[in-house]
Protein 1
Amino acid sequence: MQFVGKILGFILGYKFFGGFFGGLLGLIIGHWGDKKLYELGSVSSSIFGKGLTRQSLFMQTTFAVLGHISKAKGRVTENDIQLARNLMTSMKLDTSQQQLAQKAFTLGKDTEFPLRKVIQEFREACGQRNDLLRFFVEVQMQAALQDGSLDQKEQQILFTIAETLGMSRFQFEQMLAMVAAAQQFRSGYYEQRTYQQGNSQQGHYQQGYGRYQQSYSSGPTLEDAYKVLGVSASDEQNTVKRAYRKLMNEHHPDKLVAKGLPPEMMEVAKEKAQQIQAAYDLICKVKGWK
């Protein structure tokens, strides 16, 4: 997190503008300066090169990880390639950007692709901004679920990404359920099938990954809506509303772009916000909440 400008701004404001309120003015100016330095600053990657913008690093990391996940099942299928192309199309990448995305996708398919190192560098470049990092994980989950199935190898890669970005197993499982449920507000219906496996020899109990498979229904259900917001049917209106507002704030496209999201991915962010809005509207309609 950038804070040098805030500290200097407060000190200079306090000294030159007269006491505490002058310091507050300097703090505001310093905050604006930190924000601009963050937006304009360049970052480096051991894989993608030096002098990158955060938006370029976000885009290349996204497609590299997509390539890595696609390779997890043994070989990259034509469907995997088409999904990557569809994302490029939805982002409206120009020719040079498409070439970078294709190169990153190919790098990700390499068996020696250093996933943890790439994600750690990405985390540091993003200044550990949690909402931007969460959005990155959601993009990967959503892309992995597009083909209607998510096997254990794919889930293990997704968990490695989430863990490296500072998420716990519980947070990962909750997010995966939220993203899978949100797919119902796009196309198709995903049902979570979890299993648990005991290990008597080692004397401990191990939680297994859920498996998501695609089936079809007439439309989104109330249960889907609760999962999208990360709440339960027993939660009160205020709790649901707080969860909704928090998610909408985290997925605000303009805020995400300011923190490093490529402008080309604004449509992805808008679509996610629409899913959250649709889930909240469904809950309010069924519950009769105003």
Protein 2
Amino acid sequence: MEMSPEDISRLKHAIDLLENPGLAAKLTNVIGIPFEKAFDYLPAKWTSAIQTITRKSLRHALDVAVKTIDHSEKKASRDTLHKFLVAASGGIGGAFGLPALAIELPATTVIMFRSIADIARSEGEDVQRIETRLACLEVFALGGSSEKDNASESGYYAVKALLAKQVSEAAKYIVEKGITEEGAPVLVRLIATIASRFGVTVSQKAAASAVPVIGAAGGALINTIFIDHFQNMARGHFIMRSLERKYGADYVKISYGNPERMKE
């Protein structure tokens, strides 16, 4: 089954979103200095602190966010509404500086998770399914790379391969035992793996927010760019999943690697 011209366009759009995230470049325009210098404003102790906050935020989002998502039929996602809510959260965080990250990030992550789930629903996903909820969680691993990565572990399908076994094990565990047990090893491992990548983008956000001149308005703008980044990752991710449902995972993966060979 050959891909339709419309779906070829959707595939190319997804590739552009997933392989060209550019978060640091966008944040540089906000802080007005070379981005690598922003990290000088982060205390050394915040490297480990950010990872801890990130893991807790992801677990909280998985527990809470999808419970309140609209389970209705497919319709356009409310990206602008979620941007507004995250901007408000960032404005409060920006007013109180870097120490507020421990309070601001969990709230921001829940809103972002809801936005990701909203995008998933708009692309035809059933957000009540455990597999879809975990696919939403996967989005936080996209567009960031851990220190352990090498060239072969970057890119959309590399991240999916990295997470595949852990996602499968977590889905099976949740179906059998639920999501309430804090110490479930399969969930702990999955969240730790995603947090190692999500923490990269959180560190970039924190570094930008730590620049002294940022303040509340800058914090709101930084958060808007932050959620826009993950809305793009979500859109690309769920376009890919919708194409895989229609054409088969293997065919879409091959097409992803050779989009210019396809005719529109």
Protein 3
Amino acid sequence: MRDLMALVDLQKQVWGMHDHECTSPHTMKAATVAGGSVLGAEADGCLIGFCFGIAAKRGGDVWLWSHMTAVHPEFQNAGIGFTLKQAQREWALANGYRVMAWTFDPMQAGNANFNLKRLGATARVYYVNHYGAMQDDLNAGLASDRLEAQWHLDNPRVLALARGGRTGPRTAIAETTKLVFLDDRGALQFERPASPDKAQYAIEIPASIALLKAENMERAQTWQLHVRDAITSLLGAGYHVSDFVRGDGANWYVMERGPPRALG
């Protein structure tokens, strides 16, 4: 319980949460008894990161729902989040889970890259304003839209990435039809196909939504609405979010039709 209590302060340090927004230590304790887990990362005897998962029914299956993964700001970008997720994956497999899922803000490029590119998750579900109005430092000002990352824990691509392998050939964005993008003048453009029929589509998001919100909240809100419209339209047409590509200062979701591809 002492460790779980310490995670309240860690949530505040990572997300700028208020007391009522933090997950209670008692809730985390109950979840570990009911088939979930809390895994922590330590440095010099202090908790600097954690991931928290609960058992969740999805159709006729039981998945592990990874509600929170956090690393203290002073220790981010050092591979700790990746190590935590791999430890969570190993724990899940050892305890009978084959799929893990969680939500993330589709406007956060760093999270998208981590979930889709580094871990090998895919996304087939989009939640509009999932948590309602949020006032923490990261979320204030925009609707709390979320994509659901689905992580098939023994998928060949996921296993290869866990071992430091390649992610497969990079999507050629220049040759992919773009639905949301900045044009040559820096103007935000949105095009919705009447009948999606391409093998792939690309959707651009800002490099830093936090910076954009600070500079131009109206543009950030408009960009979010365009991304929401593009992704939900394609999900409804049988596409899924398969990849995330960063390069030349741009950040792109890649959506393709059909089942996720295994790494070949």
